[in-house]
Amino acid sequence: MTARPVMVVGGGLAGTEVALSLAGENVPVMLVEMRPETMTGAHRSGAFSELVCSNSLKSVDPGTAHGLLKEELEKMGSKVLEAALECRIPGGGALVVDRERFSERLTRQVEGDSRITVLRERIDRIPEVRPLVLATGPLTHPALARALEEAIGSDRLSFYDAISPVVEASSLDFGPLFRGDRWGEPGVGDYVNVPLDREKYEALCADLLTGERVPPHEGVEDRPEVLRAFEACQPVESLAESGPETLAFGPLRPVGLVDPATGKTPCAVLQLRAENREETAYNLVGFQTKLKYSEQDRIFRKLPGFSGAVFLRYGSLHRNTFLDAPRVLGSNLSLLARDGVYPTGQMMGVEGYTESIALGRLTALLLSPGPPVSLPPPATALGALVRALVPAAYREEGTPPGPEETGRFSPVNLHFGLFPPLPGRVRGGKAERRKAQVVRAREAFDRWWESVRRRG
User: Is a pLDDT exceeding 60 seen at residue 146?
Assistant: First the structure.
């Protein structure tokens, strides 16, 4: 008996994960992607799983929430995580990938799979095909976003997100710069550091405050119910507005870094992270911005070593789309208003590459042949993430809704605060509590995953 075909709209991280995972279960997939015929404001190609923001998938340390989630994804056989690990470049304790090799590898894998039919066209309405996976991500085309709004009866879908500039390595003067990771051995590490003394730091903050910005998007940024500033992606100039020391305690924090030229910790440090294995390009870490391109040239070339900087990509502001997940998703993660329609990835209401991949893998699992799959336990990293999106699916019958279901919803990043509290007291402070959470998560995941593999 042939498995029922699945249509997947969107070829980003989540959509690619769904398509490859289902194909691996011999499920026919039609993968619809509007690029390159219709481009977004941030993509540069028609490649699958193109990374338009950072090239870091965050920590691989299993003692962190993101590292734990990657460990779970690896056990689940995530195809996108497998590609990321193969395309990894140095990045300290983070999983940093060569973005072009990463997307090229996944594009070849998708296009070379006979069980996946690729259709390059824009979808403006919700197709009637079931099951249907919507993985159009944070850059969903406005026409489809409007159709989605009509279907769920909500106008709270959009917010704006900023991305960081990328500079050509050969255009930098590395004389005043130094290599090193926070708390690492001086002079050794995966990051290049741009040290700022007090005078240079204050001058940078002043420039950011007075720099000319891209005008608001008419009809969108003047709608408070639509514009949602997500703090993890706040433009650097907005951070500067919140206080003169905000940047020095945020993306420019110098802790654990010693400038070998002075033997001291600078007032502030801008870190540069390699974009590829050859280190021919660097990302300005945490410097997402909506300054005009000409202003980025003027301001950032004042940084030490940047007088001749050539920017391969300027920072910019682009449109993001996400659902009010607690109110529009059912316990099977499909739309309450459209049974059989499964949003996944960032549009479900998460921020982060690993979170998007994980939701894509889970969506594929829910649609795979065989008996139904239960949602992962909330003590696991994946379960904690899903519970933050659809708390009703984990709430005991008769228990009233909590504030996460009745309050205003904002996109979710995975962290240990989403995990259920440990029963009783754990001696040894925060470190021991974290170890206990990790042990519990691993045990809960292994039990759940074993039950999934044994089903049918």
Answer: yes
Which two tokens mark 199?
């005078």
CB 331 within 8 A of CB 392: yes
Two tokens at 278? 């050859």
| Strand 94-97, strand 166-168: pairing | unpaired
Residues 173-229: pLDDT tens digits?
999 999 999 888 877 888 999 999 999 999 999 999 999 998 765 433 443 433 444
Q: Is 408 exposed, middle or buried (0-12, 13-18, 19+ CB in 10 A)?
A: exposed
pLDDT at position 2 is 58
- The predicted pLDDT at position 400 comes to 81
DSSP-derived secondary structure for 54-122: -SEEEE--TTSHHHHHHHHHHHTT-HHHHHHHHTEE--TTEEEE-HHHHHHHHHHHHHT-TTEEEE---
Tell me which of 3.90.480.20, 3.40.50.1360, 3.40.50.300, 3.50.50.60 is the CATH number of domain 6-157+322-454.
3.50.50.60
In degrees, to the nearest 5, what angle opens at C-alpha 56 toward C-alphas 140 and 212? 65
Rg of the chain on CA atoms, in Å = 22
In whole angstroms, give the CA distance from residue 279 to residue 243: 34
Tell me what percent of the residues of the chain surpass a pLDDT of 90.
68
| Spans of all domains in the chain | 6-157+322-454, 162-319
Q: Which residues of 57-68 are buried (b: 16+ CB within 10 A; e: fewer)?
A: bbbbebebbbbb
pTM of the model: 0.78
Burial pattern 283-304, b for ≥16 Cβ within 10 A else e, equals bbbbbbbbbbeebbbebbbebb
Phi, psi for 197 (deg, rounded to 5)? -80, 180
Structure tokens that stand for 292 in this block: 């005009």
Residue of higher predicted confidence among 320 and 235: 235
Please give the CATH number for the structural domain made up of 162-319. 2.40.30.260
Q: For the chain, what is the mean pLDDT?
A: 89
